[in-house]
């Protein structure tokens, strides 16, 4: 069973929330962030991607960037643009996109439970990306972005959430990127807080990382650093927990995560594909797979439908994932692309950008081959994580994205340092 804890959240002033809230740091490059934050001094990007306030030629990993983030965070607090709660609370965070809503509990989760395997992962991380967030969290002394977690839904939890939303007005209520409607409720009733904590401790076996593997690893590693630095700190010290938003898995939506390649295509390419797929020409209309084991391919100004033929029903779950099938039977077998995390001949396009984006990337000449995939199923993610397996990179794209800047978690170690 798992632990969730209330915390003294740092959040935007109500009047400024729509100006503060931003897309997550990891879906924007530095130039995109500069443009998005231009003319908006309240944008959380000044904290999450602080290089936008420094010369344009600076590396986003320069020491000055992390110091600027810390400076900007303190400035936001001093100006009252961000405020810290006086008491430990939860929040309820509802996102509605295309008529579908999902509501998560904003809480702190335990780094020890990640180390013990109760908070489960399904992806590997890259050291350089971990190091960036480690330095950001360490310097700001705060979890500056939440981890997106899932759990197998419980009716007892759903009932509490539904009742609270019905009986209380939201603290924030605004529409932002991709026409997504965001609402946030403050849960400050001690009895309700304790009730939720008890239900998770008694009824929820595991939590699953949906999005934010690098943020999780970074938060945990900073927490372990702080344990060594403050060996006499109590178990309830804030650095032993990290900021999370926890959703019932049945409410979540995984989009397709598509692939584009720039490769040398053999003359008998279609014949090679027929070793593992039924290949059918579709025409000029983009093909979006409607079920597993089917793929779209845009090649030579034409869309094709590929249906996998070489998958055993008894195969391990990892081998039955569409991303694994494409990786093994196309990328590795035909193009010798064995590590898609580092091979520059391949890139990835989130389904939110649409299949026309695949056509644009290919017809522009930037790439010469594109594949559309059926979205990974939530049940597949849970099964892979339960088995301790790892999905191929870029297997899941969750929408809507959690906005950054709506809540932060203060690790409070600077106060501890000042007392020593």
Written account of the structure:
This is DUF1015 domain-containing protein. Pfam families: DUF1015. The protein has 420 residues and is of the alpha+beta class. It folds into two domains: 4-253 and 400-419, no CATH class; 255-398, 2-Layer Sandwich (Conserved hypothetical protein from pyrococcus furiosus pfu- 392566-001, domain 2), CATH 3.30.1760.10. The chain is built from 15 helices and 21 strands. The chain has helices spanning 17-20, 30-37, 45-48, 63-79, 111-115, 127-140, 155-167, 190-203, 213-229, 269-273, 317-320, 322-332, 355-363, 378-386, 413-419, and strands at residues 4-5, 10-12, 82-84, 90-97, 100-110, 119-120, 142-143, 147-151, 172-176, 180-187, 207-211, 241-248, 254-255, 257-261, 277-283, 294-299, 302-308, 346-350, 369-373, 397-398, 409-410. The strands form five sheets. Strands 1, 4, 5, 6, 8, 9, 10, 11 and 12 form a nine-stranded mixed β-sheet that branches. The longest helix is centred in the first third of the chain and has 17 residues, at 63-79.
């Amino acid at each position: 069973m798992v632990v969730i804890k209330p915390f003294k959240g740092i959040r935007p002033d109500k009047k400024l929330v729509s100006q503060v809230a931003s897309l997550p740091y990891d879906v924007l490059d530095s130039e995109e962030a500069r443009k998005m934050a231009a003319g908006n001094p309240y944008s959380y990007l000044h904290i999450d991607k602080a290089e936008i306030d420094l010369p344009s030629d600076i590396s986003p990993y320069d020491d000055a960037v992390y110091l600027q983030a810390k400076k900007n965070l303190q400035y936001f607090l001093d100006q009252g643009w961000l405020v810290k709660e006086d008491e430990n609370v939860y929040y309820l965070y509802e996102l509605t996109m295309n008529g579908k809503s999902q509501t998560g509990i904003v809480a702190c989760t335990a780094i020890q439970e990640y180390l013990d395997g109760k908070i489960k992962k399904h992806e590997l991380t890259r050291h350089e990306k971990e190091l960036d967030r480690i330095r950001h969290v360490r310097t700001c002394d705060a979890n500056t972005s939440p981890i997106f977690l899932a759990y197998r839904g419980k009716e007892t939890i759903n009932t509490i959430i539904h009742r609270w939303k019905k009986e209380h007005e939201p603290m924030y209520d605004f529409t932002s990127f991709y026409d997504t409607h965001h609402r946030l409720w403050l849960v400050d009733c001690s009895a309700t807080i304790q009730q939720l904590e008890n239900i998770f401790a008694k009824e929820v076996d595991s939590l699953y990382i949906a999005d934010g593997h690098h943020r999780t690893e970074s938060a945990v590693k900073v927490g372990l650093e702080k344990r060594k630095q403050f060996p006499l700190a109590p178990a309830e010290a804030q650095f032993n927990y990290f900021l999370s938003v926890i959703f019932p898995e049945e409410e979540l939506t995984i989009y397709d995560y598509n692939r584009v390649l720039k490769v040398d295509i053999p003359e008998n390419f279609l014949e090679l594909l027929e070793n593992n797929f039924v290949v059918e020409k579709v025409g000029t209309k983009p093909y979006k797979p409607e079920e597993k084991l089917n793929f779209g391919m845009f090649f030579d100004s034409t869309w094709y439908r590929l249906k996998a033929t070489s998958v055993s029903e008894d195969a391990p779950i990892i081998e039955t994932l569409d991303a694994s099938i494409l990786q093994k039977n196309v990328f590795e077998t035909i193009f010798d692309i064995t590590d898609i995390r580092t091979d520059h001949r391949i890139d990835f396009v989130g389904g939110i950008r649409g299949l026309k984006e695949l056509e644009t990337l290919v017809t522009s000449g930037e790439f010469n081959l594109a594949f559309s995939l059926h979205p990974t199923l939530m049940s597949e993610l849970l099964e892979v994580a339960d088995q301790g397996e790892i999905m191929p990179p870029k297997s899941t794209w969750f929408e809507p994205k959690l906005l950054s800047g709506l809540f932060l978690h203060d690790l409070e170690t600077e106060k501890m340092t000042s007392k020593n």
